[in-house]
Amino acid sequence: MLRVEGLRAYFSLRQGMLRAVEDVSFEVPVGRIVGLVGESGSGKTVTAYSTAGLEIGRPGIIGGHVFLGDRDLFSGLEQSCRIDAAAGSGKTRVRKNSGKWSRQLAANYRGVRGSRISMIFQEPQSSLDPLFSIERQITEPLLRHGQCRSRREARGEALEWLRTVAIHAPERVLSSYPHELSGGMCQRVMLAIAMASRPQLLIADEPTTALDATIQVQILSLLRQLNRQRSVSVLLITHDIQIVYHYTDLVVVMYAGYVMERNSTAWLLDPRLEDKHPYTRALLASVPYEQGAIKVRRLTAVQGESPNPFDVPQGCPFHPRCQMVVGEQCRRELPPLLEIAPGHHVRCWRWSE
Ligand SMILES: Nc1ncnc2c1ncn2[C@@H]1O[C@H](COP(=O)(O)OP(=O)(O)OP(=O)(O)O)[C@@H](O)[C@H]1O
Ligand SMILES: [Mg+2]
């Protein structure tokens, strides 16, 4: 369904080059929910925005490939944005023609974003337009994309979607404005808007972080139900590994802008730690873990500090915090993301041990 290959996203800022995302590769198979997990600042949102073809920050620089089916949504972008390693200095040099780049991006994503790919965000209230009624916000894209021919038809469709996302009194909600609804209701409305265009892929960036625990469960269950019933593929971004346990089929673990490991969620649930990346282990050890007979074990915080995005450590980005680091290789050379078993990819020099 979706294949991201070698995605990179940099910001050229006054303080220097911020490498938010580097060499990120993963897949979202048809009808699956893939969890993208990592600490704050690891590059999850930038990955989501870049994948959806949204321009990130003004001087955003993106490279790599994003395949939707067999179509590369990044094709031609490299002609207006080149990232080269400047010889000798270890610095990067960027040449970008912003106007050309934006036009190419818009052309590539025309008929894709908002129709084949939809997105929902962390703050539902701020993603809805405060000036327009819910009816207008759901029906407008349906009319614009030609999915409905009349306002009446679009209104019928909107009501149907509000029922699907379990909104009580949908007629009343249709004539409401965002400030008249609770956060949970706004997120249901966002989900209705996102789903109404019948996307093949839904990107959900921390869709429940701003909501309380019971509403969180309801929204995530709804998301899974829509995924199963309507076979929409989902990229679910979260910093909460427990959400990954309960709601995803596959997991991608990010650290300092890199994918460190990816595999099935069933593997993540397996309490054995020896076949997991040291960072994945550290993440698992930092949350209560309930699996079969094993209840909460002793919790430990991930040791050390998050990396400075302007100065990601040389070598393995996790090496300053890693308990398994040995020798110069971990400190000097970036390990490749290797497939060590079918579907299991790891970025670690010591995986074989
Ligand atoms: N528009 C922007 N301009 C400059 N830097 C940015 C911009 N957006 C993100 N960044 C930087 O890119 C890095 C990755 O940020 P990102 O928002 O993707 O992290 P995240 O994993 O989503 O974190 P969180 O869990 O807190 O949402 C961070 O260092 C962040 O400061
Ligand atoms: Mg984020």
What name does CATH use for the topology of the largest domain? Rossmann fold
Number of helical elements: 12
Radius of gyration: 21 Å
Shape category = globular
- DSSP helix fraction: 25-40%
Following the backbone from N to C, one meets helices and strands in this order, namely: EEEHEEEEHEHHHHHEHEHEEHHHEE
| Extended strand count | 14
Distance between the termini: 34 Å
Give a description of the structure.
The chain is α/β, with parallel strands linked by helices and about 350 residues long. The protein contains twelve helices and 14 strands. The radius of gyration is 21 Å and the shape is globular. The longest helix has 18 residues, at about 215-230. Strands 8-9-10-3-11-12-14-13 form an eight-stranded mixed sheet, sandwiched between helices. It has a four-stranded antiparallel sheet with strand order 2-1-4-5. Strands 6-7 form a two-stranded antiparallel ribbon. β4 (about 60-70) and β5 (about 70) form a beta hairpin. It has helices at about 45-50, 100-110, 125, 135-145, 150-165, 170-175, 185-195, 215-230, 240-245, 265-270, 280-285, 325-330; strands at about 1-15, 15-30, 35, 60-70, 70, 80-85, 90-95, 115-120, 200-205, 235-240, 250-255, 260-265, 340, 345. It folds into two domains: about 1-115 and about 200-345, Rossmann fold (3-Layer(aba) Sandwich), CATH 3.40.50; about 130-200. Adenosine-5'-triphosphate binds near residues 20 and 43.
